[in-house]
Design a protein that fits this description.
The protein has 440 residues and is of the alpha+beta class. It is 30% helix and 37% strand. The strands form 5 sheets. Strands 2-11-15-13-12-16 form a 6-stranded antiparallel beta barrel. The protein has a 4-stranded antiparallel sheet with strand order 3-10-8-5, with no helix packed on it. The C terminus is likely disordered.
């Protein structure tokens, strides 16, 4: 009894499998349908695509030449403390650094200047005294020279007068030298004073240009230390109405880039909007990353609207060629060729000739090739001239080509069962008796 039940179950399973196999392969009718693309009118641009970064045209990095604590910030054009986005004029005070030590050094240097000036006056007064002494010594020496031959004065007095005169002459030279030394000390003191006062002035950080603060890198109370490198305090963009896009271009494409070349780019911040620019210059200092050599290309663009912000990522297209208001078709239509059985019988004899004329995207203008138009269930070739192609769309011209013409660009297979079209790659439902069904 048990074997009989097992045998019945196996028989039912085999019968069900056979029915399902027959229903799937013979109950479903394979149906081919063509993909249709319409000829449309538009613009085609052949371009090089790259990625870049929006940069201010000229940026000034304002640093500190002295060390100290930040005490306060200056005021911008609106009277507010200097901060991100502040508009400023040249010589506007950006920040104040604690100047206690530098003020003391400047005061000391200024005092040394006054002391050196006093030393000059003292030396000049000494020289006047020495000149008076020289005059007296010279007079006594001349008198001694007249009286000594007649033995009116003693020989000792004669020698004393001569010695006093020689000493007075020497003292004049010493006095003049002292004045020169005092003046040199004054020049040195003045140099120290200028240095000290300049360091004192560095405690007041001023803007060197008109512009906008795009980065503030210090806070009040923070201590900046200037040693070998000047610490950066503010980053100022001179004019955000003129921007640049720094684009990394692969070495394989750099030969196609030239100054004044038209450029279009988009940024994610303003999707759907295209910005225009032109190539400014090509930097020669190439960089290598993972054995890929790239060159930086500067693209100049107008930013009068103020929409472009510094450091946005830009998707850039360098325009090589363009065609405006032309008839075009998706390039996939050129890459698909039907089988001989799908072609109208009158054209099957030329099928080999048609196969020999496929389009290569980017082929030179006016190259002849064939597209396919549907005539009932079969296809008829349409001779066209292919023009510029950007890889997605291709320009076409032809006697029977006009806007809206339907072109076959491929084919797809559908399965038709019980009046329903299904995808052959989708999971199938196994149908049971009574019209019921379930996924297994």
């Amino acid at each position: 009894m048990k074997k009989t039940i097992i045998t019945v179950i196996i028989a039912i399973a085999l019968m069900s499998g056979g029915v399902a196999y027959y229903y799937f392969y013979y109950g479903n009718e394979a149906k081919l349908s063509f993909k249709i693309a319409q000829v449309q009118r538009g613009n085609i641009v052949l371009s090089i695509n790259a990625t870049g970064t929006v940069e201010p045209e000229e940026v000034v990095d304002v640093g500190a030449q002295v060390a100290g604590q930040i005490l306060s910030f200056g005021k911008d054009e609106k009277g507010k403390d200097i901060d991100y986005g502040s508009y400023i004029k040249a010589d506007t005070v950006l920040a104040e650094i604690d100047d206690s030590l530098y003020a003391a050094d400047a005061a000391q240097a200024n005092a040394q200047v006054e002391q050196a000036k006093a030393a000059i006056k003292h030396s000049e007064a000494d020289l006047v005294l020495l000149k008076a002494q020289l005059y007296l010594a010279e007079t006594n020496w001349k008198r001694a020279q007249k009286l000594y031959p007649s033995k009116v004065i003693a020989e000792l007095d004669y020698d004393t007068a001569k010695s006093a005169y020689d000493a007075a002459v020497a003292n004049i030279a010493v006095g003049e030298t002292a004045i020169l030394q005092a003046r040199a000390n004054l020049a040195q003191s003045e140099a120290y004073s200028r240095r000290a006062n300049r360091n004192l002035s560095y405690c007041t950080i001023k803007s060197p240009v008109d512009g906008i603060v795009i980065d503030r890198r210090v806070n009040i109370g923070q201590t900046v230390v200037a040693s070998l490198n000047a610490p950066s305090l503010f980053l100022i963009a001179k004019d955000l109405k003129r921007m640049q896009v720094w684009v990394a271009v692969n070495e394989a494409d750099i030969g196609k880039i030239y100054p004044k070349q038209p450029v279009r780019f988009t940024v994610d911040a303003f999707s759907g909007e295209t910005f225009a620019g032109e190539v400014g210059q090509i930097r020669l200092n190439a960089s290598m990353t993972q054995n890929v050599v790239t060159y930086t290309v500067e693209v100049n663009t107008d930013n009068s609207t103020g929409k472009l912000l510094p450091y946005l990522t830009a998707n850039v297209q360098f325009e090589l060629k363009h065609r405006d208001n032309v008839l075009m078709i998706p390039s996939t239509a050129f890459r698909w060729i039907p089988s001989s059985e799908q072609i109208i019988p009158g054209f099957r004899g030329e099928f080999r000739k048609i196969l020999a004329a496929p389009l290569v995207p980017g082929q030179k203008k006016n190259s002849e090739t064939y597209l396919w138009i549907q005539q009932g269930k079969l296809l008829e070739p349409l001779k066209v001239r292919a023009g510029l192609s950007d890889g997605f769309m291709t320009e076409i011209e032809g006697d029977n080509v006009k806007e809206g013409t339907e072109i076959v660009s491929g084919q797809q297979q559908k399965l038709q069962a019980s009046g329903m079209e299904t995808n052959p790659f989708a999971p199938q439902l196994l149908r049971g008796g009574g019209g019921g069904g379930g996924r297994r």
